[in-house]
Amino acid sequence: MNNKDYSQRFIFEDLDIRGEFVHLESSYQAVLSNGDYPEVIQRLLGELVCASVLLSSILKYEGRLAIHAQSEGPVKLLVAECSDKNGVRAIAHFDEERLTDFDQNTPLSALITGGQLAIMIQPAKGKQYQGIVPLSGNTLAECLEGYFEQSEQLPTRIYLAADQQKAGGLLLQQLPGSPDGVTEEASNQWEHITTLANTTRSQELTELSADTLLSRLFVEESIRAFEVQSVNFQCRCSKEKTRFALSAMKRQELEDILEKKQCIAVDCQFCTTRYEFTRDDLKLLDQQEAPQNQTATLH
Ligand SMILES: [Zn+2]
After folding, report:
1. Structure pTM?
2. What pLDDT, on a 0 to 100 scale, did the predictor assign at position 166?
3. Which CATH number describes the domain made up of 239-287?
């Protein structure tokens, strides 16, 4: 396989269980290259981007999905987005001094304190949906499993891992096989499959291909894998959207900046692209309408 960044859907032929696998290299490295992140944040971003791809694949919609956290803890802001075309981008803001005692074993709830973790779906058409993810698990994967449990969806297991180069993830979900709900037999099968999946090591998630990992974990099961979908780093910023974001600022503040400088420069936080606005550019603010699906934020 040439593309090393991909997601792949699969089903167990004889069981009511489906799955999704994701492996990221260059898209993850592109995310990391846009910020000076300590290792604990790098890993968290890797897991977060993998999770956004996995969730985006199983929750069918046209638009984009974001996993978003804002907190008063060492991690101030955390965002990973995945579009329906598997375009990903992510960012983290953090308090470096408060991170020094933390490593990859630090519970997520210690990094995100006094805030919340949420899943947001912004469909191409229609209303935005937001679901709060309980910070009850130690890891991001456990917290997301708690979300599925709480929102009374289907039993779901999620495994995520990232080192400083690669990131990977696996999601398993039990499907409602019969109209009467999940049978005892299906329940036992789910138990069996998740017991096997629980043996997955982090290194296997980041190093192995979907084929190798699945055949290693589920030796006796017949698995049908679907077409591989490539994942790419993709930012959706534009000069137009940035100009609209500036419209949320007081006109006088913008004028004050222009008094001192030739133009107003705004760097996209996700991809570091710089957009510059002269006084003439800003004249358009007065008659500007919001680009589709754009809110007045700078990212
Ligand atoms: Zn950008």
Report:
1. 0.90
2. 98
3. 3.90.1280.10
Distance 236 CA to ligand 1 centre (A): 6
The string of pLDDT tens digits covering residues 45-85 is: 999 999 999 999 988 778 999 999 999 999 999 999 999 99
Residue 176 CA to ligand 1 center (angstroms) comes to 40
For residue range 226-255, list pLDDT tens digits in order.
Answer: 999 999 999 999 999 998 888 888 888 888
Give residue 260 CA to ligand 1 midpoint distance, Å. 26
What are residue 294's phi and psi, to 5 degrees? Answer: -110, 130
Helix (H, G, I), strand (E, B) or coil at 95: coil
* Burial call 17-45: b when 16+ CB within 10 Å, e when fewer: bbbbbbbbbebbbbbbebbebeebbbbbb
Indicate the domain borders of the chain: 6-233, 239-287
Give the three-state DSSP class for 288.
coil
Q: By the 8 A CB rule, do 80 and 66 touch?
A: yes
Q: Could you tell me which CATH number the domain at 6-233 has?
A: 3.55.30.10
CA–centroid distance, 237 to ligand 1, in Å, is: 4
How many angstroms separate the alpha carbon of residue 231 from the centre of ligand 1?
A: 17
Q: Which tokens in the block code for residue 275?
A: 């957009």
